[in-house]
Amino acid sequence: MNSVAPILDVNNLTVEYQVKTKGKRGVRIARAVDGVSLKIRPGETLAVVGESGSGKTSIANAIMRLIEPTSGSIMLDGKELTKLAGKELRLARSKFQMIFQDPFESLDPRRTVLDTILESLVVAGIGIDDAEKRKLALEALEKVGLIPAENVGARYTYQLSGGQRQRVAIAAAMILKPHLLVADEPVSMLDVSLRAGILRLMRELSRELQIATLFITHDLSLAWMYADRIAVVYSGRIVEEGHPADLISFPQHPYTKALVSVIPVPEKNIARNRIILSGEIPDPLEIPSGCRFSPRCPKYRALGQPELCISSDPKLESIGDQFVACHFPEKKETK
Amino acid sequence: MTTNSNDFELREAPETQLSILGKIWQDRMGRIGLLMTVSVFTISIIGPMIWPFDPAAVGADASSILQPPNSQNWLGTDELGRDVFSQFLQGSRVSLLVGVTATIIATVIGAGIGISSGYFMGRLDTVLMAITDFFLVVPSLPLMIAMGSIFGQNLTVIILIIGVLSWPRNARIIRSQTLSLRERKFVPRAKSLGATDLRIIRKHMIPHVLPLVVANTILVVAGAILAEATLAFIGLGDPDRISWGSMLHFAFASGAIGRGAWWYFMPPGLGILAIVLAFTLLGHSFDRINNPRLRDAA
C-alpha cells in the first residue's frame, strides 16, 4: 500500500481568516486550519472527521482552491496547486472535483439536468461536438443510475429529489475523470434510506477510476464504514489518524476515545462508558496554548492537570500504525 | 455498474406554469396596466395612419387659432392653428421612444455595474458603489436641466441624459441580489469545475437576476417618460419633435392655460398621467409576482 505514490499530498496546510473586531481597530486572525498534513493514494478514501467548527470544511475548500490557504503546500499528481492561478488553475480544476453537502443548493435550479452535466464537459473542453457531448452526458447519467437518462436529463434540477440531485452532482464530477474527489458531507442532507445507495455509487466509481477520495464528515461511524483511513480533526488540527478498525477499537487520543464511546451500537445491554465531553470546541480566534484539547480533556483532569499539556503543543507522532497528537496517549497494555 | 435507479419516483413538475403575462393578467392592477400600456403602444404605432392632419401644419388664418373641439379638429387647435389631436398622437411616440430607449441604457449600465460589483466584490465594489451612491443622491432634475442646456436640445441627447441618470437604483438592487446569489453553492460548484467568471455570470447569475431586472425596468420606463415630459415642459425638449411635454410647454407659454383652452393642455396632461400610471401598475404587478413576500400583502 505504501509503495504507491500518493495522488494528494498536503503538507502543513494552514487557513486563516481575518476577522474584523467590533469597536477596536484592526483585524484578528482566526485560524481555522492549523498545520494539517495528509496523503491519499489512488483508489483510497481518507475520511476527515470532526465536529462543526473543527475546520474540516475549510480543509476541503482550501484543497479545492475555493479559499486561499494561508500557507502550506497541496501537491496533486506531483503538481503544486497553491502555485497555480488564473487560467492555469482553471484548466487544472477538472482533475480535482468536489461533491457539495447540500444538493438543493449546489445545482442551479434554473438549468436542466442535462445542461448541468454538459457544463462540466463544456468547461473542461471534453467532446468534439454537441452530439458527442450529449452522448457522454447521457452515459454519465445512466452510470449514476438516473434512468431513463433522456427523460431525467430534460428535467430541471429542482424537480428531482435530494438523492437524485446528489447523483447528478456525482455524475457531473465523475464525467471529468478526476484524480481527486473531495466529498464534503455528501450524504448528511439526505434521507437515511438513500445514504447507502449514494455511498455505494461513490465507492464503485472511485474504485473503477482509481480516484483518491477525501471524505469530510462529522459522523465517525460513517467514516468507519466508508473510509480506508480516518483522520480525526479538532480545532483545525489532526489529532489522530489511522485505519478505521484500529482507530475505532483502540483510540489513543482522548478526543477520539470520547467520540468512539458515543457511537451507537446495535447490541443491547453492552456495558459502555460513554464519555460526554463538556464545553465547546475552542474559538478559532483563541486557540488554547499547549494542547488545544486540554480544557475539555478528561485525561488531563484525571492526571491532575499536568503542566506539559498547557505548556507544549503535542505533535502528531506515530505510535504503531496510528498517528496521535497527545502527550499521554492511551497505551495498549493499560487497556 | 448501475445502482438502483429510482430513489423515488421522479417528482412531478409543479402545476402548469402560467406565462409571465398570464400571471400579470390575473392580477387586477397588472391587467389594467397591461391594457393601458398596450393601448398607448397601439396609438403611437398606428398614429400616423389615423391622424387627420399633419401635426406640424399651421392653420391657414387667424380663425383657425385656439379653436375648441369641433367636427374637423376633434381636440381643437393650438395657438398656431395646428390640430391638437394629431399632435397628441404624435407626442405619444416621443414619450415611448424616450421612455424605452433611456430605460435600455439605464438597465444595461445598472445591471452591468450591479452584477460586477456584487460578483467581484472587494475594491471594485467599493469604487463602483461610491459612484452609484454619488448618482443616487445627486438631485437628478437640476442635473438634467444643466446637462440639457449644455449639450443641446435634441432627442438623442435627452435620451442619453435620462438614461445616464436613471441607473443607480437598478445597480443597487441588482448588486444586492448578486451578493446573495454568489453565496449559493452552485456558484462555487461551477467555479470548481473550472468555469470562468464570465461564464458563471452569464449562465448562473444573469438568469437569476433577470426577473428582477425586468420588474425594475418597467418602473424605470415610467420615470424616464416623466423626466422627458418635465424637460420638455420647461423648454428643454427637442424643438423639432412634438411631445406631450412640449405641448404642455407651448400651451403654457402661449397663455392657453390662462385662457381656459382645456382641449390644448388636458390631452397631453392626461396622456402623461396615463402612460406613467400604466407602466407603474405593470411594474408593481410584476414585482409582486416575482416577490412572494409582496404577493400576500396585496
TrEMBL record, chain A:
<dbReference type="InterPro" id="IPR003439">
    <property type="entry name" value="ABC_transporter-like_ATP-bd"/>
</dbReference>
<dbReference type="InterPro" id="IPR050319">
    <property type="entry name" value="ABC_transp_ATP-bind"/>
</dbReference>
<dbReference type="InterPro" id="IPR013563">
    <property type="entry name" value="Oligopep_ABC_C"/>
</dbReference>
<dbReference type="GO" id="GO:0016887">
    <property type="term" value="F:ATP hydrolysis activity"/>
</dbReference>
<keyword id="KW-0067">ATP-binding</keyword>
<comment type="similarity">
    <text>Belongs to the ABC transporter superfamily.</text>
</comment>
<dbReference type="InterPro" id="IPR027417">
    <property type="entry name" value="P-loop_NTPase"/>
</dbReference>
<keyword id="KW-0813">Transport</keyword>
<dbReference type="InterPro" id="IPR017871">
    <property type="entry name" value="ABC_transporter-like_CS"/>
</dbReference>
<dbReference type="Pfam" id="PF00005">
    <property type="entry name" value="ABC_tran"/>
</dbReference>
<dbReference type="GO" id="GO:0015833">
    <property type="term" value="P:peptide transport"/>
</dbReference>
<dbReference type="InterPro" id="IPR003593">
    <property type="entry name" value="AAA+_ATPase"/>
</dbReference>
<protein>
    <submittedName>
        <fullName>Unannotated protein</fullName>
    </submittedName>
</protein>
<feature type="domain" description="ABC transporter">
    <location>
        <begin position="8"/>
        <end position="260"/>
    </location>
</feature>
<dbReference type="GO" id="GO:0005524">
    <property type="term" value="F:ATP binding"/>
</dbReference>
<keyword id="KW-0547">Nucleotide-binding</keyword>
<dbReference type="GO" id="GO:0055085">
    <property type="term" value="P:transmembrane transport"/>
</dbReference>
<dbReference type="Pfam" id="PF08352">
    <property type="entry name" value="oligo_HPY"/>
</dbReference>
Automatic annotation (TrEMBL), chain B:
<keyword id="KW-0813">Transport</keyword>
<dbReference type="InterPro" id="IPR035906">
    <property type="entry name" value="MetI-like_sf"/>
</dbReference>
<dbReference type="GO" id="GO:0055085">
    <property type="term" value="P:transmembrane transport"/>
</dbReference>
<feature type="transmembrane region" description="Helical">
    <location>
        <begin position="94"/>
        <end position="115"/>
    </location>
</feature>
<feature type="domain" description="ABC transmembrane type-1">
    <location>
        <begin position="92"/>
        <end position="283"/>
    </location>
</feature>
<keyword id="KW-1133">Transmembrane helix</keyword>
<protein>
    <submittedName>
        <fullName>Unannotated protein</fullName>
    </submittedName>
</protein>
<feature type="transmembrane region" description="Helical">
    <location>
        <begin position="151"/>
        <end position="168"/>
    </location>
</feature>
<dbReference type="Pfam" id="PF00528">
    <property type="entry name" value="BPD_transp_1"/>
</dbReference>
<feature type="transmembrane region" description="Helical">
    <location>
        <begin position="261"/>
        <end position="283"/>
    </location>
</feature>
<feature type="transmembrane region" description="Helical">
    <location>
        <begin position="127"/>
        <end position="145"/>
    </location>
</feature>
<dbReference type="InterPro" id="IPR050366">
    <property type="entry name" value="BP-dependent_transpt_permease"/>
</dbReference>
<dbReference type="InterPro" id="IPR000515">
    <property type="entry name" value="MetI-like"/>
</dbReference>
<keyword id="KW-0812">Transmembrane</keyword>
<feature type="transmembrane region" description="Helical">
    <location>
        <begin position="209"/>
        <end position="234"/>
    </location>
</feature>
<keyword id="KW-0472">Membrane</keyword>
<feature type="transmembrane region" description="Helical">
    <location>
        <begin position="32"/>
        <end position="51"/>
    </location>
</feature>
<dbReference type="GO" id="GO:0005886">
    <property type="term" value="C:plasma membrane"/>
</dbReference>
<keyword id="KW-1003">Cell membrane</keyword>
